[in-house]
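Data availability (excerpt). The following record was deposited with the supplementary files.
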Amino acid sequence: MQVDRDPCVYILASQPRGTLYIGVTSSLIQRLYQHRQGITGGFTSRYGVHRLVRFEMFGAMELAIMREKQLKRWHRQWKINLVERDNPHWVDLAIDLGFDPLAPSRAKDGS
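Predicted structure:
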């Protein structure tokens, strides 16, 4: 049985210009579900980084991994500029992929 693979590099954000996470996957929908359900644990769960703000599809996983490594080496401002070039309002692109909108984030002081 062959599993469809769609290599992808994606950027998640906690909020516009907030905490960023860059990842690579062969199934963006499955990985987004895992992040949003907290299944992946770690960084994205700890910091509430669940908003899909950019993704790039690739024909081969090796190319996607190379791009992920490149982006992770970039300065933060370069990453922000990359997101804002195509998504200036930091819209959650996961909604167009069939996900429900995220609940508004709450301030850390509880207000």
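Summary of structural features: The helical segments are 28-37, 42-47, 61-73, 76-86.
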